[in-house]
Amino acid sequence: MIRRPAMQDLSGALAGTAREIAERAARRGARIWIVGGAVRDLALGRPPKDVDMASALLPDEIEELFPQTIPVGKAFGTILIVQDGLAVEHTTFRSETGYSDRRRPDRVEFGHSVEEDSTRRDFTCNALYLDPLRDDFADPQRGLADLEQATLRCVGDPLARFREDGLRLVRMARFAGALGLEPAPGMLEAAIASRATLAGVAPERVLRELERIFARPGHARAIELFARAGLAGQVFPGLVLGEERLWAFDRLPDAPGLECGLALLFGGDRAAGEKRLEELRVSRETRQRVLDAWSCLDDLRDLDGTRRARRVRLERRPGFEIARRVAGAKGFDRRLLDQLAAEKLALGPEGLRPSPWLRSKDLEAAGVPKGPRWRELLDAAEEAQLDQRITSVESALDWLRARLGQDGGNT
Ligand code: ATP
Ligand code: MG
């Protein structure tokens, strides 16, 4: 059910902030609109999580008008207005021309009207405007009608728009997936014809879109479109999204998160996957968790369900949760995966990393010379503890004596 966007459907905090910003601008004779995702979400009956705004006010004027601003993309007309603890992105009406590096517009021409501004927006459903003071709704590209038809349509000629900015291809897949929209006739063909433009798009922009694809339901359809339009191989040369992987994406839980998405997307060839993570410029933490998830997956593959220490050591690894979800999607034994999850939950942080019964001072007292041997013994003791063969200080010392006796003079 598509409805006419209205202020009363916006949450109190967002509506209040948008109105305050609009009132301040109105005192200067300017009319500010809420635009893009927020208005689209209102039309779809979904609660917007943030609001973007647009008006004819120039970046300098916005900075003058509002006490707290951040010039996040001033050259392109974008200023962050910080108001009541919320950040609202304001972009001056634009009608840009030329994208010679396919990353950012060469030249930005500021515009005067919503009609003008709407022509530079990517899809008709993203070119909806709502005036927070008068509750007027403007739909210069007939985006509401497209939403009613569950159609994703480019503003203007799709081929030209995709060639202008290859990122729109990724956004096409994202919005079609997240909003359950079908690409308008000719759009997919235009995407295929212009897919080479994607190769030049800045990786951080692609990453941001991937992040959003995996942050919400609908990721599987987005990835499927990615495959259908042959986009994957453009962004990640050599990457093939075969049936099996698409099937796995379909079985991944909704909104699995970026790391889980990347682990599945790039899994398989470890070296190539690592290179792709680097090329995408993911954070160090993300890279490490995804790499760890891949190694957890190997361990999951040949886990003998009986050794408790092995299970606990797996359950506490940073990549375990990602690996568990990916493994589930790939058709690993569900019962085993659920058991591991339940065991992890029951153990809690203390159970996963119990304080050790055997300590360095015990090694010292037993006369073991300091060196790498200490680490080995402490590690083996922890394993025995996790396997519940060591259950107290006494049993730890017994274990150590037996171990040292076994090792003979080697210590
Ligand atoms: P979300 O709810 O996921 O934030 P959104 O529609 O608000 O979706 P944003 O990426 O936040 O998407 O962009 C805000 C608006 O800016 C879009 O609705 C669209 O009108 C415009 N826009 C963003 N990126 C592009 C682009 N590459 N080309 C043209 N217009 C764009
Ligand atoms: Mg947005």
Description:
A hairpin with a 6-residue loop joins strand 6 (129-130) and strand 7. The longest helix is centred in the last third of the chain and has 19 residues, at 334-352. The protein has helices spanning 12-27, 37-44, 59-65, 114-118, 143-148, 158-164, 167-179, 187-193, 203-213, 219-228, 232-235, 243-251, 258-266, 270-280, 284-301, 308-315, 320-329, 334-352, 360-365, 372-386, 393-407; strands spanning 33-35, 52-55, 69-73, 78-83, 86-92, 129-130, 137-138, 151-152, 182-183. It is α+β, with helices and mostly antiparallel strands. 38% of the residues are buried. The radius of gyration is 28 Å and the shape is elongated. The chain has four domains: 1-143, Beta Polymerase, domain 2; 150-282, Orthogonal Bundle (cca-adding enzyme, domain 2), CATH 1.10.3090; 285-352, no CATH class; 360-406, no CATH class. The chain has 21 helices and nine strands. It has a seven-stranded mixed β-sheet. The chain binds adenosine-5'-triphosphate and magnesium ion (MG).
